[in-house]
Amino acid sequence: MSGIALAGIRAVRLGGPWLALLALVLAAALAFGVGRYPVSLLDVARVLLGRLTGHAPDVAPAVEAVVLQIRGPRIAAAILIGAALSVAGTAFQGLFRNPLVSPDILGASSGAALGAVVGIWLSLGVLAIEGLAFAGGLIAVACVYALGTALSGRDPVLVLVLAGVVIGSLLGAGVGLIKYLADPYNQLPAMTFWLLGSLSGTHPADLLPLAGPVILGTALLLLLRWRLDVLSLPDEEARALGLATGPLRVAVVAAATLVTAASVATAGIVGWVGLVVPHLARFLVGPGFGRLIPTAALLGAGTLLTIDTLARTVAPVEVPLGILTAFVGTPVFLWLLARAERDWS
Amino acid sequence: MPLDRRSLLIGSAAFALANAARAAEPPRDDAGRTLDTLRHPVTRVFPAGPPAAILLYTLAPDLLLGWPRAIRPAEKPYLLPPAADLPEVGRLTGRGNTANLEAVLALKPDLILDVGSTAETYRSLADRVQGQTGIPYALLDGRLASAPATYRSLGGLIGRDAEPLASLTEGILATMRERVATVPEAQRPRVYLARGPRGLETARAGSINVEALTLMGAVDVAGPGSGLAQVSPEDVVAWAPEVIVALDPAFTAAARQDPLWQATPALRSGRLHVSPTLPFGWVDFPPSVNRLIGLWWLGKILYPALFPEDIKGVARDLYGRLYHVTPDESALDRVLAGAL
Fold first, then answer.
1. Whole-prediction pTM
2. So what's the ipTM on this one?
3. Is the C or the N end of chain B the one with fewer CB within 10 Å?
């Protein structure tokens, strides 16, 4: 490789996080500017400025409601969830030293799905359904971790992944059972829509329960970013470098699970983002977690926000988020697989 | 029409003649399938799904073998005691197949009754089950507008006089069409059907879920198309529905407090209504003759001036004729809680 090309790669790597931030800002401007209810960017700026300065903006009440009650919370949720899933995916891919790992590897999504369908089956309110989903995700991963630790032989990471697969499929069967028992005219469609993933119902009241766990978990992973570098070495080497791998692994799993469970509780199952975005980020800034984690967070936020903007604008009705992420994620992943293989080896 | 001896004689003669004519050729269902193995008298009927169970219950509750889903305590007061206590037998077609074919056979039905779509999927399913079990499987048209014809088909198959219910439903449908026709197209209300815990699932105008609404001339704000769809509150605000019909009482309570839903004309003018569901849904589910009562209610909330009738009186009368039980005042209040 020529010196110029190497210098170019180095420049991209240094500028990577800034590129991701720029993309996020553009995505946010786009997201605020388009939608089913016509609102000009100028009006958006007026409403947001009005909110910041405490002055009443000079716009129609419906415009203010769309910006502050509907579009704003939805954009905030997309940013938080995109960042959360990408950071969790990045951390898990490092922890399991495997590029095919996504944030639901330890059953967080299946547990949250089961919690949600049980909530719908019992005809609970929305906040209770989200609470059950969040609890379901945490309990599922706790069970997987307990099982993994109890059975752990020579390869604790492999046992953990296998426990995740087993518990995940058991929980999937539980979801199937509840759907089977559900009222086919009313509850079953509600469950199906919930499981396909969507941000359409994001309410300002959803933001606090989402932001709390996501910020906490992401901050913890950001703090651990240098240690994650060491964790991607084989266990013996990491220990030789003086790292307590056991507690560190618990901390990473706990933080990633916290953010994943909160995301799935709010938006339903949004696949692919947590799998693909870490690869994109690695492609941009290389494998060092110091720059990888913040880049993945920004890139994930921008990606999910853009996909959600598509979800609410491309068709007369909402396109489920989980379906769009799969349609977008698959080709991107294949392209990355063909292109960026060397970054892994 | 008062029932005197003469009309009774003419009626039964016509009925006997019709039966004799039918005996000549094998009976057919609404999908055009022949049911050669159907033997009279039919005394036990297995309902393939909720629409079939409700239709059969209204015409011949004594023939019903069980319910696709057992009747819940809150629903029991609105149904005849022996029928309300029938066991759960599961669903045979549609989404999920909870009934076991051997269990169906063990119940020894004379007829399996399915009411709904007569499209190829369901025809072939009917043929398959009929072939496997040897039990005649009748597939009847479940569209609301076809209810009179469906009653007549069912009456012919089970050998019962379906004329009173057929003409009752004909009368209701005609009344609705006549009154709605007087409303100019431009004045038809724009309605949003809110399903799901968040109220953000809806059905498009061509879907069976809004059949009652479109029959009443309501303009579905979700636009043409079929099936259920998910929407965002932004869509609802942009559509600015004048009336919201909700299915979930929990959603209705939350929406009334929520500034987001307050941004719709429907909430500002207090036109958010929750559909009654006892013993069966009035508007959307299951999609059977239970929706006939809902038409009167929809008339009342969509065109108050055109439907001056006391909805309680109408409901009491129709519950008596369709469900064979006349609910008292407090039972009717429970049905209509939040609906008006």
1. 0.81
2. 0.72
3. N
